[in-house]
Design goal:
2 copies of one chain form a homodimer. The first copy, chain A, contains 12 helices and 2 strands, in the order H-H-H-E-E-H-H-H-H-H-H-H-H-H. Chain A is mainly alpha-helical. The longest helix of chain A has 23 residues, at 205-227. The interface between A and B is medium-sized, with 31 and 32 residues. The structure holds a DNA duplex.
DNA sequence: TTTTCATTTTGGCAAGACCAATTTTGCCCC
DNA sequence: GGGGCAAAATTGGTCTTGCCAAAATGAAAA
């Protein structure tokens, strides 16, 4: 995978933006460093200045560089670490999820309605029938997000959704954990989801919280076991 | 030129991007709608095509439009609601904060070290000495974020930080609530922060949670009182 | 009606020119 | 030598023109 970073079909300004971003990362340019002038960069990358310019605007919008009229283009803080940002460690994410989703489960038990209950049940069935990791994972996500939706507190939905997305950051993928979670022999996750659903239907907030926490602790167990096959420890950095 | 929406000092491509975004919002263009061709748009807005092009790339990067070579520029889903997206209602955000920050406080009580404790104490002192709303608000933020940091769970820091940022979305500002919070006669928030600090120093998790929740409930009270002066009710859409 | 293909439309990219903000340079004066 | 100031060089900002390639269009052919 040492090959090109960008597909040849992609528009030039994107390829250029990627290349410049890579230069920043590779040469470990400190925040505040000034990039070569547009004209020079354009010449070096064999593109017109207009194209180079579009690329820089793309980088500016995504917060990687700051353009100062008449002065130059400077790399920002975000850019320096953009490349090797592995995100929070999976275990840390699980810490956060245990703390938050436990409460969400409890709250959901009190505020859930029939429709949400059905939606969550549907996600469980979908997970049971899933033949591929992707489908399985998506159903899993639907369950946890659905629980957040049941609280009727929108910000919580975003938070759970975000935490979930981060679970599949590069480092996590590299550990091959998703397959580990999917390949769990008797699908403990599925069993746990069903247990939570029962508690939810019974409107038992305490039980919900406890079972959700137990579920996430088990995810941690699977996670640790899966990462044992990897040479790296899952600890951050 | 007609009354511009954006400051004249801003670079043209940004002004153009804003104007196009406003057109999309004003005319309520549905996702999938095709915008006029670049040449035509450029002419209508009195800018060069290259500039119009930079603006469209900015919009593309920020996910508001999709550009298809040889076909046209189409508005995406995100764009349609971008303009009138007031974000979650403040009360909803408080719901989320009560649920999450209560647990964070409890957890912080168990994992905080001397340094974090000092940092949090510093934020309280800063808030006490604050003469302007901005300074006061910043110290307030430092307190809540500091608490999250004390848990040593990074994702929680991001979450608290985000929730805090959203508290000051357009709708919230419009309600003049920040001044309301700042102008609180005897600064109840400051008193509450001190109480939480005490519980934190005593490593009393339960007390921490309770006091944090009490604090946020009080914030809600102030919030509601402040919004009473507004014609709009703070309820979500 | 369906298919094919030339035409038109639309975005993609390049090159050159000039303007405006900023930075640098060099000179004058103290 | 040091400080201040103005010209010059540097650098991003914008416009214009030109041509190419992909996609959509519509007429002609099957």
């Amino acid at each position: 995978m040492a090959g090109d970073t960008t597909a040849p079909g992609m528009r030039l300004y994107r390829q250029v933006a990627d290349r410049v971003a890579r230069i920043i990362a590779d040469e470990a340019l400190k925040p505040g460093t000034r990039l070569p002038p547009e004209r020079e960069l354009a010449a070096r990358l064999n593109v017109a200045r207009s194209t180079l310019r579009e690329a820089m605007i793309a980088l500016e919008i995504s917060g990687q560089v700051t353009i100062r009229t008449g002065s130059g283009i400077y790399v920002t803080e975000a850019a320096a670490s953009a490349e090797d940002d592995l995100g929070p460690s999976p275990l840390e994410l699980l810490d956060a999820r245990e703390l938050i989703e436990g409460e969400i489960a409890a709250r959901a038990a009190m505020s859930i309605d029939a429709n949400r209950l059905m939606a969550i049940e549907a996600s469980i069935e979908a997970m049971a029938k899933a033949h591929e990791p992707d489908t399985h994972r998506e159903a899993d996500r639907a369950f946890h997000v659905g629980l957040a939706e049941a609280t009727r507190i929108d910000p919580l939905v975003s938070i759970v959704d975000n935490l979930w997305s981060q679970m599949f950051s590069p480092i996590f993928e590299r550990m091959g954990v998703l397959t580990g979670l999917f390949g769990d022999p008797d699908d403990t996750a599925l069993r746990h989801h069903r247990l939570i659903l029962d508690a939810l239907a019974a409107r038992d907030a305490e039980l919900c919280r406890a079972r959700m926490q137990a579920h996430l602790i088990d995810v941690r167990r699977v996670l640790l076991r899966a990462s044992a096959f990897s040479s790296d420890t899952p600890g951050n950095s």
